[in-house]
## 1
Amino acid sequence: MIDDGILKRLDRVQGMGRSDDDLLDSIKASDALIERRLTLRLDSGKRVQVICWRCQHSHLLGPCKGGLRFHPDVSEEEVRSLAFKMTLKTALLGLPLGGAKGGVPIDGSALSVHERERLCRAWTRAFISDIGPNKDIPAPDVGCGPEEMAWIRDEYEQLMGKSVPHVVTGKPSALGGLNLRDGATARGGKRVLDKLRDKLGLTQEEPTVIVQGFGKVGGQIASLLAKDGYRIIGVSDSSGSLRKSEGFDVDDLLAVKEQGKSFSGLDNELEAEGGEPDAILTDECDLLVPAALGGQIHQDNADDIKASVILELANDAVSADADEVLAKRDIRLVPDILANAGGVLASYHEWLAGKAGHEVVVETAEKSLDDIIDRAADRAWHMHKRAEVSLQTACYALAVEHLQQVARCRGLA
Ligand SMILES: NC(=O)c1ccc[n+]([C@@H]2O[C@H](COP(=O)([O-])OP(=O)(O)OC[C@H]3O[C@@H](n4cnc5c(N)ncnc54)[C@H](O)[C@@H]3O)[C@@H](O)[C@H]2O)c1
C-alpha cells in the first residue's frame, strides 16, 4: 500500500468534491510491484543476496518512468509511494508517461566501481522482462547516477541484441544523455521559485537559504540560488551541517564535494559553525530547501521550522501531518510534485530523442522545461487561490483531474 501521508492528501482532493471517487480508489493501487532477488559478487569474492523492488504504479498515461534508488533504508512501501508520486508528477505536467520507482536496499557509496557495475548488470538481468523503452524506463535517483544508467543500457542492449538508447534516461552525454547546464531538477525548482517568488513573499533583497542534503540536487540548487542573489547560510549532508550567517561561497562547498569529502569536521576549513545533520533545519531563514531524503520535516519538528517558504526538492521531505502544521503557521510549501518536476521533464526529452533516433538538443529541452514548469506553476497557483486549498492540494487536484480525463477518454472511468 502507498503510505498514509499520500492517502491523507488524496482525501483532501476528495474533499474538494471535483473528482470521481472510483478513480481515486483505483489510482491508490499500483499496476505492478515486482520483487526480485539479486546476487552481487563483491570484490572479496563473497556473494551477497539483495531483495529489490520495482513498482510500476500506472500505465494509464503511457510507459512508466521513474528513478532507481540505491539506499540501505529503501523499502517496498517507499518504492510504491514514490512511484505513485511520479504518476502525479507526470499527470500535473501533462506528460505521456506513468510513474515507476525502483529500490535496491544497499549503500551504493560503500561499493567499489566494479561492484556497482556488477550490481547494475545483475539488476538489468533480473528486470529484463519488466523494463523497456515503451514499458518502463529507469533513471537515476539517490545513490545512482549516469554511470549506473550507462551500465544498465549496455547490459540491456547486449541481452536484447540491438541498440535501445532510450531504455534508460539520465545517461552520460556521450551516450545520448541530456545534461542540462544547471541540472534539470534544480533548474525546475529554481524556475518555480522565479515564477512564484513575489506571490510566495520572497521579496527580500537577499533571501537567506538553508539547503538540507548536498548531493546532485542540493549542490545544484545552492549554486543557482547563490548566482541569483540568494544567501546560502546553512548546508548539510548525512555527516553534518555547516552554518555561516554571512553566506557560503557555493563554489567552495562544491569543491569539497568534488573531492569526495563530507561536511563533518570541515567547520575550520570553511570558517563555519559545524553541527549535527538535522541542526540547521529549524534555523531562521527565508527559504528552506530539503534536498536529501523523505520524512525530514515531520510532526515533531514542524512547529519549530522558522523558514517562511519551503521548496520541497526531495520527494516526500514533508510528512502529511507536518504539512497541516505548516499550513496553519502560514509557511508556504512548494510541493515535491511541482518543485522537483524538472528531472522527469529532462528525462522525457532524452527519451523522446532516443525514440526518434536523433541527438537531444539542450536548448530545446531547456526551453520546453521552462515553459511546462511555468504553466504548471501558474495553474497550481490559480487553483490554490480559486479553491482556497494549499498549493500542495492544488497540485494533487490538477494531477488527479488529468488522470480522470485520460481515464474517461480511454473508457476506463
Ligand atoms: N536526482 C534527481 O534528478 C532527482 C529528481 C527528483 C527528485 N529527487 C529527489 O531529490 C533528493 C536528492 O536526490 P539526489 O539525486 O541529489 O541524491 P544524492 O544521493 O546525490 O544526494 C543526497 C544527499 O542527501 C544527503 N543526506 C542524506 N541523509 C541526510 C540527512 N539526514 N541530513 C542531511 N543530508 C542528508 C547525502 O549526504 C547527500 O548529500 C531525493 O529525495 C530524490 O528523490 C532527485
Note: The chain has a mean pLDDT of 95.
## 2
Amino acid sequence: MKIQVDDKEFELMIEYEQIKKRIRLIGIQLNVDYEGRVPVFIGVLNGSFLFLADLMKEIEIASEVTFIKVSSYEGDSSTGRVKKVIGLELDLRKRDVIIVEDIVDTGITMDHLLTELKQLEPASIAVCSLLVKPQSMQHEIEELDYVAFEIPNDFVVGYGLDYNGLGRNLKDIYRAVAVPSET
Ligand SMILES: O=P(O)(O)OC[C@H]1O[C@H](OP(=O)(O)OP(=O)(O)O)[C@H](O)[C@@H]1O
Ligand SMILES: Nc1nc2[nH]cnc2c(=O)[nH]1
C-alpha cells in the first residue's frame, strides 16, 4: 500500500501488529532485567511518544517516566553542529536510566545524549530504540541493548516519525519510495 506524506510517496514497511509484538517481547525482557530496581524511562521527544506509550503498557515493575528534547543548532566552526539536552527535570544520580528513542540512524544524537547524561552519574544507562539503521551508524553505541527492528538505510515515517512535521500519527511504519533518478 502506498501513501503520500507532504510531497513524498511512501510504501508500507512494518505493520502495527508486528510493532506491538516486538514491544511485548521487549517489555518482558525489561521486566526481567530491571526486577528489584526502579528505572527511569526517558523518552526523547518528539518521535518516541507513541513507542514509549505502548512500551510502558508492558512494564510491570515500579518505574518512572519522563521526557527530554535534544535541541540542535549550529555551533561555531570548531564545534560544528551542537546538540543539547533540554527539559530534564529528574535527578538521575544513582538511577537506572533507560533512554527510549524512535530511531538511531547515524547515532550522532544518541552519542551526544549519552555523553551528556553520563555526566549526571546515573547507576546505569541503557538505550531502547524502536528502529536502528546499522548501515548508517557512524558511532558505536554500546548501550543499545533493546532494539525492536533493524532496518536498511531508507527514510521512514509513521508511528511517531515525521516527514516535514507530518505523518507522526500513522499507525504503521512506511519507507520512502525511491524515485528513479532523472537522466
Ligand atoms: O541517529 P541520528 O542520525 O542522530 O538521528 C536520530 C534522531 O533523529 C530523530 O530526531 P529528529 O531530530 O528528527 O527530531 P524529532 O524526534 O522531533 O522528529 C530521532 O528521533 C533521533 O533523535
Ligand atoms: N522521520 C525520520 N526521522 C529520522 N531521523 C533520522 N532518521 C530518520 C528517518 O529515517 N525518518
Note: Residues 2-176 form a domain with the Rossmann fold fold (CATH 3.40.50.2020).
## 3
Amino acid sequence: MATIIDVQDVTKRFGNVLAVDHCSLTVEEGSITGLIGPNGAGKTTLFNMVAGTFPPSSGRILLDGEDVTGLAAHELFARGLLRTFQIAQDFSHMTALENLMMVPARQSGESFFNACFRRGAVLAEEKQTRSRAEDVLDILRLSHVKNERAGNLSGGQKKLLELGRVMMADARVVLLDEIAAGVNRTLLNDLAAAVQRLNREDGLTFFVIEHDMDLIARLCDPVIVMAAGSVMVEGPMAEIRQNPEVVEAYFGGGVQAEARP
Ligand SMILES: Nc1ncnc2c1ncn2[C@@H]1O[C@H](COP(=O)(O)OP(=O)(O)OP(=O)(O)O)[C@@H](O)[C@H]1O
C-alpha cells in the first residue's frame, strides 16, 4: 500500500498553546484510518492543517509524496482531497439534488464560451450530471428528499448528502469529522455502509475523527491515538483497546467506554 497522507514532524502553536506537538503519522492509500484521542489531544487542529484550513507552525505535509504544506483547501480539493462534514451555509437554501449537481468542479456550463457556443453540449452535460446526482441520491436512500432544501434535512441526512458530494466530486481521499455526532442509529448504519462501499468499490481513502468507539472499531483499520499533540500509538482497534497506556490516557483507566459519556 502506498502512503497517501504523510504528516512529518508537524507542530501548531496558538499563542502559548501547543495544540500539535511534533506529530508524525501516515495514512495509507485505500485505508479507512481512524484518529482518536482525549478531548484537546489536537485531532481537529491536525485535520485543519491536513485539509488546508491553516498552515502548520513547522513541519511538512505530503499528499502522494508531494509537499502540500500550507496549500489552501481548494488547492487540495483539486488534488483529490476533500473534507466533510461542513455543508456550506451558502448551499443550505438549495435542494439536495441541486447540491449534488453543483459539485463537478468545472462544468462546461460555467464557461461563457461554452454557454454561448456549445449550448447543446452544455445541456447534454447538465442532463448527465442530473442523472448521476439522482443515482447518488438513490444509492444513499435520499431520493425522497431530493427536492427538499439542504438546510431542512436532518443532521444525518446532511451527512449523507455530504457523502453524496464526495461521490460526485471523484475525491480520492476524504477527511471525515465525527460522522456519528447527532445522527440516529438507522442513518448511522447507512452512513457507515456508504463509507465502506466507497472505500471498497471506488478505492477511496478515508481519514476519520470519531468519538464513537463502536463505529471506529467497525470502520477503521488502523486506528491512530493522539494525546497531548502527538501520536501515542497506532494499530488495529482490538489492540488499541488493550493497550494499557491508551486505557490510562484515553479511557481514564476505567471501563473501556465511549470517550464522551
Ligand atoms: N484557534 C485556537 N486558538 C487557541 N487554542 C486552540 C485553538 N484551536 C485549538 N486550540 C487548543 O489546542 C488544543 C487542541 O485542540 P483540538 O481541538 O485540536 O483537540 P481535539 O483533539 O480535536 O479535541 P476534541 O476531541 O475536544 O474536539 C486544545 O488545548 C485547544 O484548546
Note: Residues 247 and 253 are 5 Å apart (CA to CA).
